[in-house]
Design a protein that fits this description.
402 residues; alpha/beta; Aspartate Aminotransferase, domain 2; Aspartate Aminotransferase, domain 1; seven-stranded mixed beta sheet; globular; binds pyridoxal-5'-phosphate
Length: 402
Amino acid sequence: MEKLFTLLEEEKKRQNEQLNLIASENFASKNVRMFAGSILTNKYAEGYPKRRYYGGCEKVDEIESLAIEKACELFGVKFANVQPHSGSQANMICYMALMNEHDKLLSLSLDQGGHLSHGSPVNFSSKLYEVHHYHLGKDGRLDYELIHQMAKELKPKIILAGFSSYPFIIDFKKLHDIAKEVGAYLMADIAHIAGLIAGKAIPNPLPYVDVATSTTHKTLRGPRGGLILTNDEEIIKKINKSCFPGVQGGPLEHIIAAKAMCFMEDLSPDYQKYAHDILVNTKTCNDEFALLGDVVSGTETHLFLLNTKKSFGMSGKEAEDKLAKIGITVNKNMLPFDEEKPAITSGLRIGFAALTSRGLKPNDAKFIAHIIHDYLKGDLDIYRASGLVKSITSRLIKVENI
Ligand SMILES: Cc1ncc(COP(=O)(O)O)c(C=O)c1O
């Protein structure tokens, strides 16, 4: 048992001492972590509030109802299902609610910025449905005309937008018009951008989409889990059936309580400031790389892509491994039209949701661009670079105090 406690302490140290630039991660608050680790884990509650298959659900009924109410308030929607165990499961629940096997799904592929659950050949989504992928334009942005053409030709059941490594704002109104024209459902996967929407830092797509899925652990800063939102009463009935008993069994009421806490935190003015601060830090770092002459995607969100091949003559994997040695945690990422394999890639995805939670200021976002640039160019040795990283982490809020 001691081994496990030691590993937890070591992981805490790692989180405090490394600069986390992974765009899909964040640091949950003490209260969120407290509920996620609470005695609510002891309770079985198959079903939904007031319609359970177990006794003793009075308190978890209230907790889940509160989570639903706060999710609806946060995103300005009528209905929410807070039970999905993860973002991938939220997507599976939606597909199963809205499509029959072999129906057509029109989405962006993984290598261009989509997600495994958007129809990757190695994922259930491509095994159950007929998947067609649109691709980005040469400028790395969505090509709405192409999506329109493909939608007219294919008549998909679902058009899916919302991605893992797309740095720009998505025009959901345009996609809504396309979906309505061809009689498709428009589904938004807002896993990455949910926190920016909740914090009113980017436009809310909910008025334009039939259904939205999300994770709760990325920019939203909640516990690890999933979420489904809609304004359509017929759709929520289908989603609820698809979630339980369709895909999942007993809901994780401890995680649902932590989600309720996260939604309440996200309704505060402090959180709105945080969401706006993420955008400032991300743009500051992106623009500093550009000033240094490096090739970056540009950004309107919490992330951008750095082309390490063109900037430093090395793959994303080499850059990720090198940066790990000086305490910068980041992930290699395929760039649009990348010729390298997913395990190698030509670049990095860099995000600022996590460091902004630790109180990182724009000057340090700029400084990070300089450290990465100088170190990957070979102008800064490993010892000096590690020292500079330490000088930043020592100024940040400790992860256990967030
Ligand atoms: C756009 C998008 N959707 C879904 C998911 C899946 O979330 P999970 O890892 O919780 O299954 C991710 C995760 O990175 C994502 O980026």
